[in-house]
Amino acid sequence: MWLSIMQRLANIFKAKAHTAVDQLENPVEMSKLAVAELEKAINDATEAFSIALANHKKWDRELQQATLASENWKQKAKMAIGQANEELAKKALIEKSNEDKKMTEYTAIFQKSEKDIKTLRQNLDSLQFKLKEMKAKQSVLEAKAKNAEAQGKIAKQLQGIGTGALSNFQRYEDKINEMADQSEAMQESLFSQKQLEREFDQLESNVQVANDLDILKMEMQNEEQKKKEKLEEKKMETLSIKLASQTVPLKQVKQILAPKEEKLKNFFGDK
């Protein structure tokens, strides 16, 4: 008899325990919790997006500064050449080469950051769209939950949906971690250079600086030559106007033009 009583008490305890668990797993409350968790996930994603956007703007500023610095060093090199100081011009061109390298690096980082921001924006928009859908279905889910309180099958289905949501969340978390690892690996690969590569880069930089110096000197020579030619043209035009406005003996004209012709012969070479 005592054994039978104990068995019945155990059955009652189990029944009470199942009832308590069912009350704790209220579908309405669980759905609200899912919405709250998704809202928190969106807030975290929004914060991450803001940080990524701030970094993106930072790289943009760094790129613009490197571009301006490169142009500034080029102008300084011109100034040094104008003062016949080639050593100072070479130093300026070395600095310009360093800024050009920064421009290349910052451009790659900026473009990568731009793609990351686009991906984050798409993911954030997707989460916000799902949140709107969940909130729109909230009242419908509450009505269904009230009608299904006495149905164990529906309770199991809701429990299965909860398990599926956790599984999906875990899958999203793994995917985000994978994306973060890939991004970190790409950044490390971008900034890491071997010693041999650095030496070759330095060699190429020195060659480029020498070439830039020659090109810059040639440009300045051409500019100076054009200035001289324009000055001579203006002088000849002025002389022609004066000759046309007054009568001058042929001998006097030859005396006026003789020095000009001699200068032109000396400038272009007497052939």
Q: Would you write up a description of this structure?
A:
By secondary structure, the chain is mainly alpha-helical. Helix content is 92%, strand content 0%. It folds into 2 domains: 224 residues, Helix Hairpins; 39 residues. The chain contains 7 helices and no strands. α2 runs antiparallel to α4 and α2 packs across α6. The radius of gyration is 41 Å and the shape is elongated. The model has no long low-confidence stretch (mean pLDDT 75).
The H-and-E topology, N to C, reads as HHHHHHH
Number of domains: 2
CATH fold title of the largest domain: Helix Hairpins
The assigned CATH architecture of the largest domain is Orthogonal Bundle
Specify the helix fraction band: over 70%
Q: What average pLDDT do the residues reach?
A: 75
According to DSSP, the number of beta strands is: 0
Query: For the terminal residues, how far apart are their CA atoms?
Result: 140 Å
Radius of gyration of CA atoms, rounded to a whole number: 41 Å
What structural class is derived from the secondary structure elements? mainly alpha
Number of helices: 7
> What general outline do the C-alpha atoms trace?
elongated
Main sheet, how many strands, which sense, barrel? none
- Please report which band the strand proportion falls in: under 5%, 5-15%, 15-25%, 25-35%, 35-45% or over 45%: under 5%
Uncertain segments: none
Classified by CATH, the class of the largest domain is Mainly Alpha
